[in-house]
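Moderator note: this is an archived Q&A kept for reference. The question asked for a predicted structure of one protein chain; the sequence and the answer are reproduced below.
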Amino acid sequence: MSEVAVAEKVKELKEPLFSKKNRALISNPLDDDNPITVQVLGICSALAITVQLKQAVVMSVSVLFVLAAGNVIVSLMRNLIPNRIRIIVQLVIVAALVILVDQVLKAYVYDVSKALSVFVGLIITNCIIMGRLEAFALANKPWPAFLDGVGNALAYGGILVIVSFFRELLGSGKLWGYPVFGQKVGALLSDGTLATEASGLYAIGYVDNGLMILPPMALITVGALIWVQRARNTKLIEA
């Protein structure tokens, strides 16, 4: 081994766990390399499961687990996986993790699992996950691969949470299922009875925007986030 190679190996061993390079693996996906607003990946779930904040949070946590664990496992096996079958191996790893997530959701949050329906299973083919496994985990050590998985999952989940926040709030006047703008006539109260009078904003004539719970509004909301991000970070604007 040459002196240069030895020096690089020593430098690598002395590198702090949260060095500037490693911190960038988490921070870059949150802005400059956001998988949804910059790379335009994972749009399907952003449109389909952001009607309620609870669903978006559960999906975000599920993707965080699958992507972080999948990156680490693929990184650990990167020197053992034959190049010709690497995609198959990655799919098997992700599928096993998704099955585990699906069973946990059915056991502990069955209502959310039922609402998410097939979209939990579609995590297997989420282009963000397969892209990070292929582009990063196969070429890096477990710790950077873990940080990369966490960074991209947080960026993905952050967009889902923001979109679902506005859609649920403006579309139904609720957050996490709890009324924010008051009670509508006929709404189920905590004591099990139905409200006979409107309260809060509804008492002065406020009406929910039903368009916000329709899929097209999810796309419009994501588009608005892209516009805000590019207005703030001008280097993302294409020439």
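Archived answer notes: The radius of gyration is 22 Å.
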